[in-house]
Amino acid sequence: METSKFFSLVEEFELDEGYQKTYKSxxxxxxxxxxxxxxxxxxxxxxxxxxLSSFALRGSMLxxxxxxxxxxxxxxxxxxxxxxxxxxxxxxxxxxxxxxDFSDHPLSKKNPQELVFFLExxxxxxxxxxxxxxxxxxxxxxxxxxxxxxxxxxxxxxSECRFVYICRDPKDVFISKWHxxxxxxxxxxxxxxxxxxxxxxxxxxxxxxxxWDHVLGYWKASLESPKKVxxxxxxxxxxxxxxxxxxxxxxxxxxxxxxxxxxGIVEGIVKLCSxxxxxxxxxxxxxxxxxxxxxxxxxxxxxxxxxxxVNHLSPQMAEALDQITEQKLQATGFNFR
Length: 337
Ligand code: A3P
Fold this sequence. Notes:
Elements: H1 6-13, H2 17-29, E1 35-37, E2 43-47, E3 50-52, H3 54-66, E4 74-78, H4 84-95, E5 117-118, H5 119-122, H6 130-133, E6 140-143, H7 152-155, E7 162-167, H8 170-184, H9 194-202, H10 211-224, E8 229-233, H11 234-239, H12 241-251, H13 258-263, H14 265-272, H15 275-279, H16 282-285, H17 315-329
Helix pairs in contact: 2-3, 12-14
This protein binds adenosine-3'-5'-diphosphate.
Adenosine-3'-5'-diphosphate binds next to helix 4, helix 8 and helix 15.
């Protein structure tokens, strides 16, 4: 059983009583949760309707007990493999467009993960929220956590922080996840078979799954609170990236001026964040993995296409997944088309 290393964290960082309580309750909750094998042989725990790693669960608990939201916070939210890297890059370049020149942009030197920090990880750098508390406003943070696991201090009407969410056709998400899981698996393990991963995904057992519940949580929130949650589809962004860039800018209350439009800033952002441009940056070609960081920058760029599932799923598998999707979305008013 994994533990939070409660005592060593508390001792090493001399954390105050509040943090001690949170780590203690994490250590108490974890053994009570039903664990399942994750796709790269980590464990997933069923917590409040979702399958989370212990890392994500600890992040969520700290978020709920210690995070101090600011009205200017922007949360880039996704279920894994829906285009997190892309959305991070888009939001970063839209919000910071006055600070940088496209010919010498931070995105050409840094992976978007270094510019838009991963909330559930960054929240306990040094054991506490001190790193995140020290970031200047507006804070751009990224998350895979379901909407329902956020504190009401961030989701209710009194809070002004905003969420930009992107979803994607589950068949493409599954294929992207399966490739990613096999990159992450230890070298001495055989790859996870497509059929095994498919079975888990269909049952909802994948990081931050069930996938459909994750999407529907943000979808409903975007209907109820359109000023708080912007809901995008990967396929739409691919088709009309300029419209999406304008939509995000308007949502974040930093619309493009006629002068910026004339200067081609929108087109510049679309080009800067395109799969072709980003995957060709030296920093994103880096394929170094080690025990400290089992994921390399290059792992986040594979094909970047719509409909690649057709090259991997049998017609029967595709139909089965479509049927599950139809069932899950029944009477919700939402579809992936
Ligand atoms: P594929 O595996 O289908 O190629 P995430 O960033 O959430 O981990 O999602 C990864 C998926 O987004 C991968 O999909 C990856 O190739 C794709 N991706 C990464 N950068 C992208 C970009 N700039 N434009 C479009 N897709 C991108």
